[in-house]
Amino acid sequence: GYFSQTRMDVLSPQNTVLQEAYSAADGYMAEEIIRTILGAFLFTGEDAEKKVKVLSGGEKSRLILAKLLINPPNFLLLDEPTTHLDVDAVEALIKALTDYEGTIVFISHDIYFVRSMANTVFEVRKGRVRSFPGEFDYYLEKKDALSEVCVRQVKPSPAPQKKKIDEAREKAKEEEKRLREEVRKRKIHNAAIGKQIEVLKTRKEKLRLESYAKARVLSRPRFYEDEKRAKEFGRRIKEIEKLMAELDIRIGDLESQIIE
Fold first, then answer.
1. Which residues contact 93 (CB under 8 A, 6 or more apart)?
2. What is the dihedral of CA 227, 230, 235, 241, to 10 degrees?
3. Residue 91, Cβ neighbours under 10 Å: how many?
């Protein structure tokens, strides 16, 4: 199986997420199983009914990866699989691939993903390929150790590389921590904005129902026998229209504050 960050043409835009996932099944597969796999890639509930054509780049990437695991081959070749994915999606991908029983070869610039998945590293440099039978940190340690040996054969040894390795590791960890904190803050911010929007929408719906009820009453000719009350209803309907327009503006302002 092959995944590329640029191959979005393998999806059918008119299908729903669920239909597209079914297309990968080899013969009959229970909907519950399909939905479970989609859920592992963060397509839960109504998300599975979305049309493919409205999905973001990250959602399309997740769907392609889910299709690969619905009918898993013995071998997966992944080209930058975390491109377009947010932190939660990367975690979901790591979990799904950890459970995969075949062989995976991947290319990635995502240090966190590489650290989580790689158990053998191949370095391609100057037309040569070197194999490091260990995780990414083992590769960093051995790569620099081999480089130091090569330099010593030509000229006096440079300063030890361990400090640089430690600094690189610490920098990567700090960057991962910073990105996770940004995601956490964004979720809290968006949740607070979402609650405010729901309150305003509820208020607007109540006003709409009140306006509708009063308009129905005003549609009855006999109601105008009470001229004072009829005028009050008319004034209230105009007031409600103004209030609903103000609510629309406030809702729009809040929606513009949502961080994507």
1. 41, 62, 65, 81, 82, 85, 113
2. -160
3. 16
Cβ neighbour number for residue 62 with a 10 Å cutoff = 26
d(CA 25, CA 255): 39
pLDDT digits (tens, 9 = 90+) for 138-191: 888 887 665 544 444 444 445 556 677 777 778 888 888 888 888 888 888 888
Of 163, 177, 186, nearest in space to 257 by CA = 186
Q: What is the pLDDT of residues 67-90, one digit of tens each?
A: 888 877 788 888 888 877 778 878
How many other C-beta atoms lie within 10 A of the C-beta of residue 20? 25
13 secondary structure, DSSP code: T
Residue bearing tokens 């009855």: 220
CB neighbours of 109 closer than 8 A, spacing ≥ 6? 80
Element containing residue 79 per DSSP (H, E):
strand 75-79
CA 97/CA 76 separation, integer angstroms = 10
